[in-house]
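QA checklist item 7 of 12: single-chain prediction sanity check.
[x] sequence parsed
[x] length recorded as 448
[x] structure emitted
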Amino acid sequence: MADVSPFHAYRYNLDRVTLADVVTQPYDKITPAMQERYLAVSPYNLIQVEKGKPEPGDSPANNVYTRAEQVLAQWIRDSILVRDSSPALYAYFQEYTVPGTTERRTRKGFIGLGRVEDYASGVVFRHEQTLTGPKADRLELLRHTRTHTGQLFMLYTDPECRIDALLDCAAKQPVTAQATDEYDVTHRLWAITNIATIATIVREIAPKKLVIADGHHRYETALAYRNEQRAISGDRAEGPYERAMMTFFNTRTCNAQAEGLLILPTHRVVSNLSDFDSEALRRKMEAFFEQENYIFGSNSARAAAYEKFCRDLQSRANNRPAVGMYAGRQFTLFRLRPDVDLAALMPDISPAQRQLDVVLLHRILLEKGLGIAPAAVVAERNITYERDMHMAIAAVDQGVAQVCFLLNGIGVEEVAQIALAGEVLPQKSTDFYPKLLSGLTLYRLEQK
């Protein structure tokens, strides 16, 4: 069962700070430029805790983790961060513009504490593999601060939308906190303290399966920390380390105006190939894909070719898997041939995954076509990842990359289906948008 509970969140004191000045994007999305901007905008910006800067002379006694611990404790002493007096769940709505369009959407969820479960328990499911480096960093930060500052993005399925109805009721009250971030996403929070409402939400989500949408490294960090603390204390019952802060979103659309779950594609940018030849790749791929080329000889012709290419890629050629490629001077659309036997080609991959564009890209175009083995993908020797299609194309035009492969986003239902089947997708297969802000609520691992 999904064990969810309210908590006494620490939140920024809005009498002392402007919320938009102190919250951040998730740690793994923070570039060096963003880090500098966060540091400049407010002395109380969460960046000092979430992703501090190394300094000359750092030592085991003085480093980014010890400084994060000290800063956090000081902010609590100075009432920059204050603990909510009542345990609460927090309705969390995000209003945003779909990138590349003018369409506005609202994503509706709630923040609570979720019990950290081993994957084998059949309650929490992953859909991505994790890397050791980010987990080591997050674990060291958690050991020092004993605080969860960022959100784990969890999915559940509630076809009858009972929880969403309760969240909509909560949102009719005055907003508890609100901020608009650098991507023009408006984040709104309402504290739900009514005991009956909390009990209903907890009861409704209890039988649900939870899928990690975003935050796999943070979830496995919470697992590792839980296991450490269990070994120290011998307690396997109700220590505060048994739970982590999570934000829960329904995979089902409950309102035609609130189709908020959006997964953006992550394009692949390829470089450092010793003998790349785009024409040779196209010939090699004829056995697997039908191909359409969008050739242009001028900037004006390029715009028309790009527009048609994007339209055809998004249509996915009558629901057949499709992958785009750009290697300079032309775009190519690869459509899976209807006569290709994917079961024979990829017997180790489930039928659901065989139909995913990103899986065909990795297993056929990258591995068979370019000889980029899975180990090289994990090591990122040839591939980098880019959310913005224009930036991926520009990398080729500027000579930074040899070729880029362009994708559609995966559907939320597909992600949930694969995760619940116990499978994992290739690295960087999903990019849920928008991200959940760090610093809206904090969970301190305090003894009750």
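[x] summary fact logged: The radius of gyration is 23 Å.
[ ] second reviewer sign-off
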